[in-house]
Write a structure and sequence with these properties.
single chain; Amino acid/polyamine transporter I; two-stranded antiparallel sheet; 20 helices; 2 strands; 68% helix; disordered N terminus; amino acid transmembrane transporter activity; transmembrane helix; Amino acid permease; membrane
């Protein structure tokens, strides 16, 4: 029998059982806490300086140009003239996911994008998996786009001064080169802009986006003069399987609205403007993609696209018989693709910022420079890594690896919007997905279908990447997570 006079420490206290491993893996971060911590980093705070126009330009900047200027030469040989249908399928898949992103971006306006949405709805392990996919999506897509930038730089140099960079310095190993120097350079240029802060980067991006839209309109005007209906005679030479495979590759081109959602903590009115920017940018980008692809295939036999990563410039030269127009387009493409690198690199750094703030990756990625309001160390580390990746890996492998990471993350977002509707039905939402849960379910199924269209090698790369991510989580993030340690983030005063 217990001695009633025993000191408190000697009595058997009733201690609640510690949560099991499964419960800890499913721990969720409340939406209110996510929003309250918005903008806070170590040593400073992100600054709210972006309006609807800048957010839309970030979306378009990260999206428009990737599929047309770079990946078109990869996709056309898979689908033939039906590549236009591939763009429509990829755009439709993106639309379903964009609706889910729009609802969640307006409800949870933070930098973490789908990683943070998963953290609030499906728990820490799923959030980690989603964030790890986003690192693949953003990091590899920066590298893939940078590879294409080098191709157009050579077109520009050839058309202006009659020289090109030697293959040893402009192509990756396995494609006749040693090191792709232009790819590294454009990533480092993006880094310089980002170190100046979000507002300054947005201004530069707006100028570059305007140039790329003008370039694509010019291409359509000139390319239409060389349009031959006979190029569409055999519309689907490789069948629906080819259309699906090309669509999966082209989905790489629709990550712009995801980049916009990473600006949730730097938007002036995130709940109002993020959903609008996401939907507006997707409509503009899809329309231009389909139009440019239709004109390109009409002006050039589809078999000529093979291994042509600067196809649009070559088409303009062939149609007009003058190298000036191809050189002009190459100049515009050099600027346009640089904006994709800039905005996608921006998204990558903000995803890591959110994950570091939650304790799942080292805290250095959440350190904010007090003067510029930019995560400086984060930006430098990510830029150097992506630049080296761009310089050493061929484009086709990069594009497919990005697509599978994007599709998986988007599939999780479609689930997250349904879960949040069920668990927090009364939460204020500035945008609601119509016909939910039907449209989110369609978005999920489209993503899974397109993932199944990717090659076995891509799945192997994805599996290895996920295995590495899980090892890192259980070794590092599982115990250092702020939810695990109970550590609260100290509020930072806004400069």
């Amino acid at each position: 029998m217990l001695d009633q006079g025993a000191p408190p420490h000697a009595r058997p206290a009733t201690v609640p059982a510690s949560p099991g491993v499964a419960a800890r893996l499913m721990r969720r971060k409340p939406v209110e806490r996510l929003v309250a911590e918005g903008g806070q980093g170590e040593g400073g705070q992100l600054r709210r300086s972006l309006g609807l126009w800048q957010l839309t330009m970030i979306s378009i900047g990260a999206t428009l140009g990737t599929g047309i200027f770079v990946v078109l030469g990869e996709a056309v040989p898979k689908a033939g003239p039906a590549v236009t249908l591939s763009f429509v399928i990829a755009g439709l898949t993106a639309l379903f996911s964009a609706l889910s992103y729009a609802e969640l971006a307006g409800t949870i306006p933070v930098s973490g994008s789908s990683y943070s949405y998963a953290y609030a709805t499906m728990g820490e392990l799923i959030a980690w998996v989603c964030g790890w996919c986003l690192l693949l999506e953003y990091g590899v897509s920066v590298a893939a786009v940078a590879v294409g930038w080098g191709q157009y730089l050579n077109e520009l140099l050839d058309g202006t001064i009659g020289v090109t960079l030697p293959d040893a310095l402009s192509a990756p190993p396995g494609q006749g080169g040693i090191f792709n120097l232009p790819a590294l350079i454009v990533v480092l240029l993006g880094m310089v802009f980002l170190l100046g802060g979000a507002k300054e980067s947005a201004r530069a991006n707006t100028v570059m986006v305007s140039v790329k839209i003008a370039a694509l309109i010019l291409f359509c005007a000139i390319g239409f003069m060389g349009f031959k209906s006979g190029n569409y005679a055999n519309f689907m030479p490789l069948g629906m399987a080819g259309v699906s495979a090309a669509g999966a590759t082209l989905f790489f081109s629709y990550i712009g609205f995801d980049a916009a959602s990473t600006a949730g903590e730097e938007a002036k009115n995130a709940q109002r403007d993020l959903p609008r920017a996401i939907m507006l940018s997707l409509v503009i980008v899809t329309a231009l993609y389909v139009l440019v692809a239709a004109v390109a295939v009409g002006a050039w036999p589809w078999k000529k696209f093979k291994d042509s990563e600067a196809a649009l410039a070559q088409i303009m030269t062939d149609v007009t018989g003058q190298s000036f127009w191809g050189t002009l387009l190459a100049f515009c493409a050099v600027i346009a693709i640089a904006s994709v690198v800039l905005t996608v690199l921006y998204g990558q750094t903000r995803i890591l910022f959110a994950m570091a703030r939650d304790g799942l990756v080292p805290g250095i990625f959440a350190k904010v420079h007090p003067k510029t309001g930019a995560p400086r160390a984060n930006t430098i580390i990510v830029s150097v890594f992506c630049g080296v990746l761009a310089a050493a890996i061929p484009l086709g492998q990069l594009a497919d690896a990005t697509s599978i990471g994007t599709l998986f993350a988007f599939a999780l977002v479609n689930i997250a919007v349904v879960v949040l509707r069920r668990t927090r039905p009364a939460m204020h939402r500035t945008f609601r997905v119509p016909l939910s849960p039907v449209l989110p379910a369609l978005g999920f199924l489209f993503c899974i279908w397109m993932m199944g269209s990717l090659s076995e090698v891509t799945w192997i790369v994805f599996g290895v990447w996920m295995a590495v991510g899980l090892v890192f989580y259980f070794v590092y993030g599982y115990r250092r997570s702020r939810l695990a340690t109970g550590e609260e983030l100290a509020p930072a005063a806004e400069k």
